[in-house]
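Priority: medium. Attachment 1 of 2:
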């Protein structure tokens, strides 16, 4: 039996990070606001904004912190209702709760994308903001979502934690809503262990987020506009909000920025490799009548580092047998709704009051499988994974894939 590859380790951090870290070790300059200019965190913000094509970026301690600050930056009143998809990671409703708002869950379909009919219905139920979580990088119909939200003047935040490098009609995911948030946690496209960043073109929103992230006193002066310029617009916004907002101290350390910056030039290669790997495995396993990888919506070009697929025409017993058959071959397949404490199954978000049932999302979660495909995997390793999935499917359904 050929053992499957390790799908948990990330790829090595580029050597350039070592030099930058050594320099920080020698100087002891780990705090983003010590240097008068060009601190690694400030440089990361400029580089990231430029890479994504947005005016401003704010690096923080996690994507969850970025989501929390985004909601706070919108100045939503206590108990404001925030519409989110019901298929996402528990960190997303948690960030809404953290911001003293109420998450309202909308249905997600078999293709892991927001059910627009349910979205539109709920949008008219006193919703103050929308937080679109592009779960596992799957992009919902952003044209329809933006049209519905713009018609009602409801701000949209994009949770692009796991979507760095994905495009929608050629636009970077995370630049379509008012604010986009990304993660640098180890399972995402750029790995700093922990970290997050938010981007926006709105000077007022970024000024509020910067101050609340912990830019006390006049540290806001170290935040610049596009290409490191002193932006008049930004200075005015900071003047307006100085001393008006609480400081939550969610800053990023220079060490994290030093680990992230040399990975930015790797992004396009990682995206290309990840997409090729994903599409290769997808094509192979789609040959089975009982495995289905939903197609992306036409405007989406994905940047995947994992693959999701549905088990077709299998009852609960067969679904369990499929998981057992892959595990016996050394590959752990996560079926979102089948494990007892999965953080992506909405019924486990019991910290929410009046947790609704969402039958469509529930049905999807009960048969949707998740397999990590780190972008560093090679063809032969991908074949081992695809073979295991196909063999397990054939074993359960008693027929060999075409
Ligand atoms: C990872 C992830 C988050 C949380 O990111 P952190 O940086 O760990 O806080 C939020 N949303 C989605 C969709 C994620 O994949």
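Attachment 2 of 2:
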């Amino acid at each position: 039996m050929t053992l499957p590859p390790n799908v948990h380790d990330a790829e090595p951090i580029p050597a350039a990070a070592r030099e930058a870290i050594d320099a920080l070790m020698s100087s002891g300059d780990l705090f983003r606001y010590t240097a008068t200019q060009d601190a690694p965190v400030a440089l990361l913000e400029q580089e990231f904004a430029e890479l994504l094509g947005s005016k401003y970026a704010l690096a923080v301690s996690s994507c969850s912190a970025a989501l929390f600050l985004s909601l706070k930056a919108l100045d939503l009143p206590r108990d404001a209702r925030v519409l989110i998809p019901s298929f996402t990671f528990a960190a997303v409703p948690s960030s809404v709760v953290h911001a003293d708002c109420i998450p309202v869950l909308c249905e997600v379909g078999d293709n892991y994308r927001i059910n627009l009919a349910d979205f539109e219905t709920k949008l008219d139920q006193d919703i103050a903001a929308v937080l679109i979580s592009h779960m596992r990088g799957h992009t919902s119909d952003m044209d329809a979502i933006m049209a519905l939200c713009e018609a009602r003047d409801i701000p949209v935040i994009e949770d692009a934690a796991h979507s760095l490098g994905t495009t929608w009609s050629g636009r970077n995911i995370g630049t379509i809503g008012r604010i986009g948030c990304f993660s640098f946690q180890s399972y995402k496209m750029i790995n700093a262990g922990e970290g997050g960043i938010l981007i926006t073109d709105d000077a007022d929103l970024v000024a509020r987020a910067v101050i609340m992230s912990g830019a006390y006193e006049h540290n806001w002066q170290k935040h610049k506009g596009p290409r490191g310029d002193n932006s008049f617009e930004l200075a005015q916004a900071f003047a307006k909000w100085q001393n008006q907002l609480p400081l939550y101290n969610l800053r990023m350390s220079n060490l994290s920025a030093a680990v992230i910056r040399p990975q930015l030039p790797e992004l396009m290669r990682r995206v290309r490799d990840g997409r090729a790997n994903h599409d290769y495995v997808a094509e192979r396993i789609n040959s089975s009548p009982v495995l289905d990888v939903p197609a992306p919506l036409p405007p989406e070009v994905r940047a995947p580092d994992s693959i999701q697929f549905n088990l077709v025409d299998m009852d609960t017993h067969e679904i369990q047998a499929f998981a057992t058959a892959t595990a016996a071959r050394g590959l752990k397949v996560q079926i979102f709704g089948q494990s007892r404490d999965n953080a992506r199954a909405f019924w486990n978000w019991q910290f929410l009051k009046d947790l609704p049932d969402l039958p469509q999302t529930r049905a999807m979660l009960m048969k949707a499988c998740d397999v990590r495909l780190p972008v560093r995997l090679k063809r032969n390793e991908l074949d081992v994974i695809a073979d295991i999935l196909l063999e397990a499917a054939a074993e359960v359904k008693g027929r060999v894939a075409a």
